[in-house]
Design goal:
alpha+beta; 7-stranded mixed β-sheet; 6-stranded mixed β-sheet
């Protein structure tokens, strides 16, 4: 409809009869909403001109006030199946249906007046059965539904066209579902004291001999050999079997389609020999070349109709019940996958039939998704490595596989070890032991590998001791210690590692068998803990020394150069890493946890020193980070703060800086220049990044500004002292 042409159509006003009827209306007050309304809140007139139905809407209140002008003029074109409304008050076009227009005094209790002649015009033109307002509204709703369906068909027609390539179900599909797909079968029996009883097997579909059945007890049918559950006819009642997941893979135009079904049986009381069988298709995934997938599920589309819907992010948990989602999962039988010539030829290129023959049930979608991510999965299956394949398929293992055509080499082993892996049905942990064995060039017995695998011990767990003992000796040692302590091998391995770390901190030569292989591990461990005073700090220090081996020696080598004291304060150098950790923990700041300070000590960029009160030389007070020339980078006390009391110590710091200048060497000054350069570069980078402090009392401040404010450069301090 052209709106300019619509405006030229003749307009109608309220008739004399309508005016009189409106004046005769008596306003009533709605008992719920306290709003006035009339018996007829709305009056209507109709006319057809140039093939267009024009409906005029008048408000009763406006008619009572003497206005004959309509509030709205509704135009309907049945040929183009469209409508539009002219708002006479605001003089604009509206696309809304009449129930969405602003109509005064409109309520559920009110009616609409339309003359018999006008009503006949409206019903004949629109082809509706309802009168007046309701007839026009129903017609508009019908048009909106058609418009909505037309818009949605642009999406759904493309889906239907794409899914048209899905083949028909196999001819024996229902028989397969009943016999192979649904695993749950029963033997129904009547209570009897006779020894020779008979029951009805749902798989055999005939009576079979049974002995001492018990209601709900599981067993095996003596005839067909299938797993069954006994059901006493007198107690079974009506019930449903557990829902089973079933899968069908078929060739299609673009590649292959995976179809997912759910199937179950319904048993009615007294009709156990003839159960109702149900199955429904829930999901379709079409795999193209390269296993690129398009997924569809059967569900409620736009809250209107159940149909196939394409989706990229479809959650199975939104469809399945709690027990299925968190219990059995989505594994199920796959139709024809184990046949010599399966329904889907594309299966032969996946390894899925071979793994399914071994496992019995599987989730094909999960398998194919894993195969796409890890193409080596097919080679694993076809190499007979089923346990390893299952771990990869279930996401419990990720392998590093090379590109060698020799699959054994691709896995990091050789043909001999490949044979052992296959014969042993080894998993990923067994493979890692074989890789270690090949790297070491010394065979590890299967019994030893089985021992470590059975106790969840990985090859990497032995790194701390494998250079000093063979795998067999480690196993024997752990077994002996298990007998002495009763603890698990995994726990003993952790205890052993901690013990050796503490021995290293105690200065013992852990290359001597006397120390690395104690007679009683637990007793030796406890003795080391007692000597270390704090096991946690000792272990942390051992880890620091492993990464920064010169820190202890550097701290001890510069002690005489930097330590200094007067009557009020003193500078104390740490003797070992434990001192730095303890000081940081006592004052609750970062030197106890951050490795950056150890890195700087290792490179002689800066040192950690302690400011102590002369009367309390062993009590942590302030921790200082100091450059080789005495420049103080940071000074922190409890909670990573710098309190006002530090002002009292600044004089001592200046005195100390002046004193140590006499002790510094040319190498110290060279190191100081490099330290200053690195510090300035760090400040520049922090300012470029606008790095801020996010926690504590300095939260929100620029880190570079805080560090720069902390700075007490040695040369400037000396000049200030000389000027004074």
């Amino acid at each position: 409809m052209k709106k300019k042409a619509l405006k030229k159509l003749r307009s109608l006003q309220a008739t004399k009869n309508m005016m009189e009827l409106a004046k005769a209306e008596i306003p009533e007050r709605n008992r719920y909403w306290k709003q006035e309304h009339y018996k007829h809140n709305l009056f209507m007139r109709c006319q057809v001109e140039e093939g267009i139905l024009k409906v005029f809407l008048f408000a009763t209140r406006e008619l009572r006030l003497g206005s004959r002008k309509p509030l709205y003029e509704v135009f309907v074109d049945r040929k183009s199946r469209s409508f539009v409304t002219w708002d006479t008050i605001y003089e604009r076009w509206r696309e809304a249906k009449i129930d969405c227009l602003t109509l005064p005094d409109r309520s559920w209790e009110a009616g609409t007046y339309i003359s018999l002649r006008d009503n006949q015009i409206l019903k004949k033109y629109l082809g509706v059965l309802q009168d007046g307002y309701e007839g026009l509204l129903e017609y508009q709703r019908r048009i909106r539904r058609e418009q909505l369906e037309k818009r949605q068909r642009k999406e759904t027609d493309a889906w239907d066209l794409y899914l048209a390539q899905v083949p028909e179900l196999p001819k024996d599909w229902e028989e397969w579902v009943d016999k192979e797909g649904i695993e749950q079968n029963y033997i129904f029996y009547d209570y009897s004291r006779r020894k020779n009883q008979k029951g009805y097997c749902t798989w055999c579909e005939k009576e079979v001999p049974i002995e001492k059945p018990r209601h709900n007890r599981e067993g095996t049918c003596p005839v067909c050999g299938h797993k069954i559950q006994y059901k006493a006819r007198g107690r079974a009642g009506r019930f449903w079997s557990e829902k089973e997941n079933l899968y069908l893979l078929q060739d299609c135009r673009d590649g292959m389609v995976l179809r997912e079904f759910t199937a179950w049986r319904h048993y009615r009381t007294g009709e156990y020999e003839t159960p109702e069988r149900f199955w429904e298709e829930n999901r379709r995934v079409i795999y193209k070349e390269g296993l690129e997938a398009r997924s569809f599920y059967h569900g409620l589309y736009k809250q209107r109709v159940f149909r196939w819907i394409e989706t990229e992010n479809w959650s199975r948990s939104s469809y399945y019940n709690y027990g299925q989602y968190y219990g059995k999962g989505y594994k199920g039988h796959v139709y024809g996958a184990s046949m010599p010539e399966p329904e889907c030829k594309g299966l032969m290129k996946t390894g899925l039939p071979q793994l399914l023959e071994r496992m019995g049930i599987i989730d094909p979608e999960q398998y194919i998704g894993c195969l796409k991510r890890n193409p080596y999965l097919e080679r694993l299956v076809k190499s007979g490595l089923f346990r390893l394949s299952k771990e990869v398929y279930e996401g419990r293992a990720e392998l590093e596989v090379g590109e060698s055509p020799d699959f054994a080499k691709a896995l990091g082993i050789d043909k001999y070890r490949m044979k052992r892996l296959r014969e042993h049905n080894g998993g990923s942990r067994y493979l890692r032991w074989l890789i270690l064995e090949k790297q070491q060039g010394k065979e590890i017995l299967d019994s030893v590998i089985d021992y470590f695998s059975g106790h969840n011990i990985e090859p990497g767990d032995l790194d701390f001791i494998s250079g000093q003992m063979s795998a067999v000796r480690i196993k024997n040692f752990l077994e002996k210690q298990r007998g002495l302590s009763g603890r698990s091998s995994k726990e003993l391995l952790s205890t052993w590692r901690d013990y050796l770390s503490m021995c290293a901190r105690l200065g013992r030569d852990i290359n001597q068998e006397l120390f690395f292989k104690p007679k009683d591990l637990i007793k030796s461990h406890d003795e080391a803990v007692g000597l270390c005073e704090d096991k946690k700090i000792a272990l942390q220090a051992a880890e620091v020394i492993r990464k920064y081996p010169d820190v202890d020696e550097i701290c001890q080598s510069v002690r005489e150069k930097y330590e200094f004291a007067d009557k009020e304060y003193r500078i104390v150098m740490p003797r070992r890493v434990e001192d730095i950790i303890y000081d940081g923990q006592a004052l609750r700041h970062c030197t106890s946890s951050s490795e950056i300070y150890y890195d700087r000590i290792q490179n002689r960029e800066s040192y950690i020193m302690f400011l102590r009160k002369a009367g309390e030389p062993d009590k942590p007070y302030y921790t200082l980070e100091v450059e080789p020339d005495g420049t103080v980078r940071q000074k922190r006390t409890v909670g990573d703060r710098q309190n006002i009391d530090f002002e009292n110590a600044t004089g001592f710091i200046r005195k100390w800086q002046k004193e140590i200048q006499k002790r510094l060497t040319k190498e110290d000054h060279r190191l100081a220049q490099e330290s200053s350069r690195l510090r300035l570069e760090e400040f520049r980078e922090l300012r470029e990044k606008k790095a801020k402090i996010w926690h504590g009392h300095l939260q929100g401040k620029l880190l570079a500004d805080v560090l720069e404010a902390d700075l007490m450069e040695a040369v400037r301090c000396m000049e200030a002292e000389d000027a004074a």
